[in-house]
Amino acid sequence: MNWKLLFPILCLGALLAFPAGTWAQTEGASNAASTANGAAAAAAAPNAAAGAPGAAGTMPASVTPVQGIGLDAGAAPAGETESRAAGLLRFASNAFSGAGAPFMWAILIVSAFSVAIALDKVVLLMFKTSGKDDGSLEEITKLVRAHRMEDARRVADRLKTPFGRIASRVLSLRPGHSKDELQNVVDEAYLAETPQFHRRLPLLAVSANLSTLLGLLGTIAGLVIAFEAVAHVAAAQRTAALAGGISVAMATTGFGLTVAIPTLAMHGLLGGRADRALEDIEARMAVLTNVIEESSRSSHGATRENTKQGTRNAKLEDMVTAGKA
End-to-end CA distance of the chain, in Å? Predict the structure, then answer.
């Protein structure tokens, strides 16, 4: 993933999410207005059952209906009952436009950053590094044992995986190399390919912790609002103000944990996947290195034997020539 594009992607996500928050705020205001009108009409109607204020079925004047925060103060009127999922969604949407909006938007930006990192690692670990190497390793080792290094290198080039690129560099060594030269090339190629497996993975853990802390900060802000309502707001509006502060605390805490839990789980899963991929590469390179060393020793042994045989033949020719003379 091109990380220069990350900031524009986050900005685009914020621009797309802002209309949703505005719509949620408008819907909440509309619902509150309609509920207030209904409450006023009900208060104006004669109470045939009680006949006096404060009788059963009449709401006390000090209790104000709580609207737009997802908390049910009582049974909903007929025809206005909504599902729990819809109520929860409305509650979360309204949280982006109230006192907890700064914390909610901050957590949303952190979540977008976490999704970008997770997608980058998933593409790398699931697709770019998991080529079909199972049969290719055996093919490469057979070619190396047959001293066909160039053919083995071409097979490694076709893999398009970290193991293939490491093997290609190792197989490009000149004939007659020493064991130290081989090990140096293996180390250099390994260090050039493997850091990408764990790169930026720690940022997922940081994002999870940051989401949790931002949610906790929103919780503190909501509790401050609630305590201010208890201390300074008039009794007629105290219930609504108190419920508003509690809703800010619950919304920010819930959203922070909703982002943090899957992010932390993804960090663990991707970290384990990266470790297994590195172990697989190390095992394959150990096999390939041993085969190259065996091939090199056998090649050197054959060269020395051919040299000795050539020397013996030369001596025999000299003896034959001297005898004829």
Answer: 81
